[in-house]
Amino acid sequence: MSAINGKVWKFGDNIDTDLIIAARYLNTSDPKELASHVMEDADPEFLNKLREGDVIVAGENFGCGSSREHAPIALKAAGISAVIAKSFARIFYRNAFNMGLPIFELPQSDEIKEGDVVEVNMENGEIKNENKIYKFTPIPPFMQELIASGGLINFAKEEIARKNA
Predict the structure, then answer these.
(1) What Å distances lie between residue 20 and 7, 66, 149, CA to CA?
(2) pLDDT tens column, 102-144
(3) Is the pTM of this model over 0.85?
(4) 161 forms bridges with which residues in the sheet?
(5) SS3 (DSSP) at 108
(6) Is 118 helix (H, G, I), strand (E, B) or coil?
(7) Which segments within the chain are labelled E, that is strand?
């Protein structure tokens, strides 16, 4: 997988799934519809500023709250290329990988500022921000495969196709 490059949008601690995608929009699972409301309760102007490939950087416990998969689906469909945070709620962590959204735990996430451009190398476990390189534990190969496939369902379809070929 190639490196992830994107402009940073900053959020704080305890960004819950209701801030990522409000419950009032959960009457659909259409990714485009969910994306059209992503983060609007945290920052009503977020979608107007966001560009394809941008990165969210947050504090602790990103994705806390409910276990719904709508949150990582909405982020990915909105064009977010990755989320970097000090820590993630465990169910969000797994849902993100299952949906094909790369996420990275970085204790020094508060050193990255809004507007910075970061480059993430998933295989080497590195995040470059200007002249600084941060190290994180590389994502296990299987989870890298999930991301490269676009999520668990696509990965499973590819596996079935390989076995039936």
Answers:
(1) 18, 11, 23
(2) 999 999 999 999 999 999 998 889 999 988 999 998 888 888 8
(3) yes
(4) none
(5) coil
(6) strand
(7) 4-10, 55-58, 82-85, 103-105, 117-121, 126-129, 132-135
Contact 70, 34 (CB under 8 A): yes
Length of the chain: 165
Backbone dihedral angles phi then psi of residue 56, each to the nearest 5 degrees: -95, 135
Tell me the pLDDT band of 79, cut-offs 50, 70 and 90: very high
Instruction: Band the pLDDT of 47: cuts 50, 70, 90.
Output: very high
Largest pairwise CA distance in the chain:
48
- Contact at 8 Å (CB) between 111 and 132? yes
Which residue's entry shows tokens 């390189």? 133
